[in-house]
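Hello,

I think I submitted the S-adenosyl-L-homocysteine job twice by accident. Can you confirm which output corresponds to this input? Input:
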Amino acid sequence: MRLAPKKSLGQNFLLNKNIIKQIVEVGNITNQSTVIEIGPGTGNLTEEILKKKPKNFFAIEKDKKLYLNLQNKYNKRIDIINKDVLDIKWNYFEKQNMLVFGNLPYNISAKLLIEWIKLNNLNFLFKRFVLMFQKEVADRIVASVNSSKYGRLTILNDWKMSAEKIMDIDPENFFPKPKVKSSLVYFQPKSNIFNLKDSKSLEKVTNIFFQNKRKMIKKPLNILFKNSKEITNKLNLDENCRPQNIKPLIYFKIAKELEKDF
Ligand code: SAH
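Support: Only one job matched these inputs. Its output is below.
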């Protein structure tokens, strides 16, 4: 069956077999693994994942036609779910240490990442993630402090996950060709995370700091704290440096101070 790709669902199917193989290798699937594939589409990655014989295999596909097609093809071998992944409750699977694969629409990958970071049992539910992003977004996730791409996404991600870029992928490897380059990113939930009540304080701190990343940090500190001088001294901050020069750990500490005011 030939299916016309739907732009609205970000359907760019990955055709390069070598890249597909590499993606699956990175995930390190064993016969004990529970795998979740998001947006299996026509089954390009699915087929390769099946070869690794995971113990449990769930796939989440929003497109009804593609879903039916996959049901026909894989019937009992995969548990295929016809849902929008953004509506999935991750506790539903009643599994832990899950491996997630997704060559997804770009906007969905970024939304999901933030959603996962907000889970308080992330490290329990998931073992690793292998996800495709728009290159520009991937570069922001894995950026180092003091670099131009370093920012909110880097810091928020670093609170809960370690991330590593595996490779950049040119548009020619997909059909239809996307307009921008893609990158594959590998994530592992951290087992020891800096203790914050939730993500709200960190989101607020990074939002305010990165509203104007060229300005010195004195201003955002004054916006956030009445006693900003005290905080500056306590955390040994240099008021004259810029948001991009501050390590994630310091942002976590600033967020912790803010939580005391909540
Ligand atoms: N993984 C396949 C398909 C990539 S295209 C491949 O590499 O070839 C992206 C897939 O995600 C499509 O199948 C699309 O229908 C699906 N998709 C898009 N938005 C989705 C959503 N919100 N929830 C679940 N699946 C979605």
